[in-house]
Amino acid sequence: MGILSWVTLSLILGMRCFTSSDASFSSDGLPGTGKKFLDLAKRKELADWMVGIRRKIHENPELGYEEFETSKLIRAELDKMGIAYKHPVGVTGVVGFIGTIKPPFVALRADMDALPMQEMVEWEYKSKVAGKMHACGHDAHVAMLLGAAKILQQHRSEIQGTIVLVFQPAEEGGGGAKKMLDEGALENVEAIFGIHVAPHITVGEVASRSGPLLAGSGFFEAVISGRGGHAAIPQHTIDPVVAASSVVISLQHLISREADPLDSQVVTVAKFQAGGAFNVIPDSVTIGGTFRAFSGNSLIQLKERIKEVIVRQAAVQRCNATVDFLTDEKPLFPPTVNNPDLHPFFQRAADDVLGTGKVHDMQPLMGSEDFSFYQDAVPGYFFFLGMVPESSQGNLETVHSQYFQVNEDVLPYGAALHASLATRFILEHQKGKSDSLTGGRHRDEL
User: Fold this and answer.
1) Is 17 one of the annotated binding-site residues?
2) Pick from 168, 184, 241, 282: most CB atoms within 10 A?
3) Cα dist. 23→13, 30, 33, 188 in Å?
4) Which helix (H) or strand (E) holds 314?
5) What would the pLDDT profile of 309-341 be if each residue is shown by its tens digit?
6) Model confidence, pTM
């Protein structure tokens, strides 16, 4: 395109699409659209509204599959925007729709649940529910997706496709994503994107990678039973504490002596409950923990070996053992593996919103995410959004800490990234790039 033609097109788009109060988009106007979304999201009225939503949710945290008031708030806001939705999906989940309700379908996801923790941060909007806290930023995730919905709904007539808003329950171990999938939340969806706030990345910057990003995970609990008695005469007992101690050590050998050193795996025993007296050997000991791996096969092999080691090591000490992997409550999470064809797409979209030098590659983490269930079904991409103030000398408190705090300056960035990813996917689909975006459905595992 010649310079004169480009200037003419820019002037036309400037007059027709980007008014003082709106940011429109077209298949010819992708560059710069993301920045317009960010400008909209940063406007005081919308930014303050997202802060208010986030604080309401933060004050009233709800655990997995109990997010009834959070779901009610989301539906009330969608009603005000005139956005159609399905509810309930996955017990408390909400699935909203913006656009033509015709292909292409692209989904954006926010999780809703809190953690069973007591908030220790003293501030005006501290959790009002004893023993429950939004310590992983899910309140911010909901606020950002609602902010994106507000922006996108204002331009619904220009969206030649369908943006699916997935408000999901029970990410914290409950496998809410799987339940949402089983109930059709991603029907017809060609790609899905998810955000997680990050207390170790500067605000206005993002980090992710192509391929394996987060580990698959599972949980286990075992009861090792012997015969209790007086601590002074252990010969008349069958000591389950010794047996359980042997089990804990042996489980570590699964990593140090059986796992490939180039295939990252973890087994951690984080729960050890025995007797309550100094001079009584208990009848039983309960242990529990988690196991992680970046390969589905490695995860299954770890699960099998964990059971074998616990049962057989207990038998060596004349004890019996039962092992429960708690799959009804905490299903096995697959590894979170970003679709390699969506990686350059994400980089383009994020660059357009944030500017150059703000999009970073990162190393895989042993944490887990049930977003992986969506990625098993459709091409998906998950990334971390920074919230460390530029003036800060260090990181914020880590997620799952009683002192965790959200820097609310992050909210406009999340809303703009959601809006940009969804609209860009639809626009590039219109330009015939769908095959390159979704062709690689294989899972690239470490």
Assistant:
1) no
2) 168
3) 10, 12, 7, 28
4) helix 296-316
5) 999 999 999 999 999 999 988 899 999 999 999
6) 0.88
Q: CA quadruple 298, 299, 303, 309: dihedral positive or negative?
A: positive
DSSP state of 408: G
Q: How far is CA 352 from CA 23, 78, 159, 202, 436, in A?
A: 14, 27, 19, 18, 20
**Contact assessment for residue 279 and residue 231, using Cβ atoms and an 8 Å cutoff:** yes
Residue 135 has pLDDT above 50, yes or no: yes
- The pLDDT, as a whole number, for residue 153 is 97
Given pLDDT bands bounded at 50, 70 and 90, which one contains residue 22? Answer: low
- Please state the rounded mean pLDDT for residues 350-364: 97
Residue 16 has pLDDT above 60, yes or no: no
CATH topology for 216-324 is: Alpha-Beta Plaits (3.30.70)
The answer to whether the annotation marks 136 as part of a ligand binding site is: yes
Three-state DSSP at 136 gives: coil
Would you say 325 and 363 are in contact if contact means Cβ atoms under 8 Å apart?
A: no
Is 428 labelled a binding residue? no
Would you call the peptide bond into 103 cis, given omega within 30 degrees of 0 as the criterion? no
Q: How far out from the chain centre does Cα 290 lie?
A: 18
Tokens of 197: 């706030």
Is 200 within any annotated ligand binding site? Answer: no
pLDDT tier at 440, thresholds 50, 70, 90: very low
Q: Which two tokens stand for residue 88?
A: 């309930």
Q: For residues 381 and 337, give the distance between their C-alpha atoms in angstroms, rounded to a whole number.
A: 8
Measured in whole angstroms, how far is the alpha carbon of residue 200 from the centre of its chain?
Answer: 16
User: Mean pLDDT score of the chain, rounded to an integer?
Assistant: 91
DSSP, res 65: T
Rounded to 5 degrees, φ, ψ at 442 are -75, 160
172 is annotated as contributing to ligand binding: yes
CATH topology of domain 24-213+335-438: Aminopeptidase (3.40.630)
What pLDDT is recorded for position 72?
A: 98
